[in-house]
Specification:
The complex is a heterodimer of chains A (325) and B (343).
Chain A (H helix, E strand, L loop, with lengths): L1 E5 H15 L3 E5 L15 H5 L4 E3 L4 H13 L3 E8 L7 H8 L2 H5 L6 E6 L13 H5 L5 E3 L4 H13 L4 E6 L6 E5 L11 E4 L4 E5 L3 H13 L5 E5 L2 E3 L3 H11 L2 E8 L4 H13 L8 E5 L8 H5 L5 H12 L4
Parallel strand pairs in A: 2-3, 2-4, 4-5, 5-7, 6-7, 10-11, 10-13, 13-14
Antiparallel strand pairs in A: 1-8, 6-12, 9-11
Helix pairs in contact in A: 1-7, 3-4, 8-12, 9-10
Chain B lengths: L8 H4 L11 H23 L14 H8 L8 E2 L5 H7 L3 H9 L31 H16 L4 E6 L6 H12 L4 E7 L2 E2 L2 E2 H4 L5 H7 L3 E6 L3 H16 L5 E6 L17 H9 L2 H11 L5 H24 L24
Parallel strand pairs in B: 1-2, 2-3, 3-7, 6-7
Antiparallel strand pairs in B: 4-5
Helix pairs in contact in B: 2-3, 2-4, 2-12, 2-13, 3-4, 3-10, 5-13, 6-7
Classes of the chains: A alpha/beta (325), B alpha/beta (343).
Amino acid sequence: MSETMTYAAAFQRAMADEMERDETIFVLGTDLYVRGGHFAQVKGLGERFGRARVRDTPISEAAMVAAGVGSAMHGMRPVVDLNFADFAMGAMDEIVNQAAKMRYMFGARVPLVIRGSSGVGLFAAQHTNSVESWFAATPGLVVATPATPADAGGLLVQALRGDDPVIFLMHKRLSSVRGEVDVPIQPIPFGQARIAREGSDVTLISYSFTVRQALDAAEAVAEDGISVEVVDLRTVAPLDRDTINESVRKTGRVVLLSDAPTVGSVLSEVAAGIQEAVLDYLDAPIVRLGGRHAPIPHSPPLFEALVPSLDGVSDALRDIVGVTV
Amino acid sequence: MTDARTAAAEDIEIDLTGLPKGELLEWLETMLLIRRFEERAERLGSRGAIPGGIHSAAGQEAVAVGTMRALHPSDPVAGTHRSHHTALAKGLEAPHVMAELYGRATGSVGGRGGTMHLADLDRGYLGGNGIVGAGVGIAMGAALACQLKGEGVAVGFVGDGGLNVGRTWEAANLAVIWDLPLIIVCENNMYAVETRFDLVLGGGSAVRRAEGFGLNAVSVDGQDVAAVYRAVHAAAERARTGGGASFVEARTYRYEGHNTGQIITYRTDDEVADWRLRDPINRFSAALVAAGVIAEGDVEGMDSQATALIDDAVEFAESSPFPDLDTAPANVTSMPTESWESR
């Protein structure tokens, strides 16, 4: 059975179902109990599960994540909701030095989910960081970057049944996007990309918000006779290199797409992996379409000028297959 | 030259009232074991047998033993970067701790941790920590788990250096507003590496600062194992009955430098000698002799036994293999590390 729901509601649904199933799961963060979080991601859970399991905190990120790490090491399954992923900077030690290393150093299980809304959008420079490459570069962390309501739910279920610390990044421009979600929501394994659209001429790889843009661009260039395979990474750590390489072997051309700054990006890691594994299959240089090396300004047309546009993606797809319009 | 210095009787004598008499010999044994462990490890670090040297806690034995014996064995504890004493007092075995310092496969965490990262989760020891103040946060989280499960009290150790980092107080605040069963034990050994605590502690008092955050706070003589025990025991009882979080400042001293081989220019020999007059082991053994718990001659035998155990620990460590190199990238997450990498 499937239901139509928003990205935020799918997260909320998965949280509720899992909290019902497992009493050790609880969520903590600011403004959760009544408001349901700044993106309505846990709306309604407060009344349903009570203040012990939907815990309002002060604005105190280091303590929030420390509470998650310590309670996870002592038998619980905490979800720390930072609201904005940008606020992780107040808890970098707790994430990078504590959560990420306890398994390697001590053999500890740290089943901890740290959720934050991330990515380019409104609210200017300090609320629009793309943090995925930082955490993807840290051994010990899973980084989930769902693009659809179904994946927001499925990846959360996986996180809540697994043993690893998971940085769960939900793009702020996807919060109210609707999609079909199979219920009950089943776990989606980490490191398993999704072929969002099958194609044969060029592989367009993306994750999170820009998967929508990728699909739109694929549709646009289909009119030019270009068959685009869209790969949604779903988790940027680990990467599903097998699915990526398989698609590249089929198409021989690769465009990588994200709204995160390109320098030092997930796209760069994907590109490096492709040339190491399947260089011989490439008929053209890999193209990275990412954000410019700049903070995100307030003015909407100004920030849109820093990230790939639908036309820009479509043009890149046409260029790489040598179609001139 | 004879050292003519003396300490006042009230700075020496230990009041054994209210202590579990039947357990006190074990306390002394453990304190001696820690001292001999630290002395040996310091020497082994100096000559390079222990890679990277160590952070010695010689002089701070009473804080570790007084704290751990006031808890239940299963209560979770998180330590600092200087935590051989807390690990040994929590029940980690000297051979495995020594092997850990040596980086051997038989070490407490298989050679992945070393001096700052001893751990044994099965014993409730959530690890030493290389980041100042971080152990308080982890203990606070463990205290939250204890509260949700309805069982246990968590202890987080912090040094005087950790009194000036924000994460300590963020954790304290959360513990206070949630009435968590947390005890923050501050080992004030006077120096954060080389920085004397009173020069950098705004307001001048750890206890007043803790009280400002709403913690039940006391300061005790950290060289008096009985005083530490009583303070932590009272805090634990309060925590177990829903009375919330506490802060215990234990005024103590490390005899060695911050780390192996440190050239000490920031304190005087007289200061060290004054603290040695109030040595926690000498004071406790004298109190036990005076109370007839142990005969004076038997203390020496107990000490020899501690030395022999450390001999065995070193032998165990040196005869243990290094970890299998193939395991170096293993167990980063629950998934194979190879699945992360390009291949």
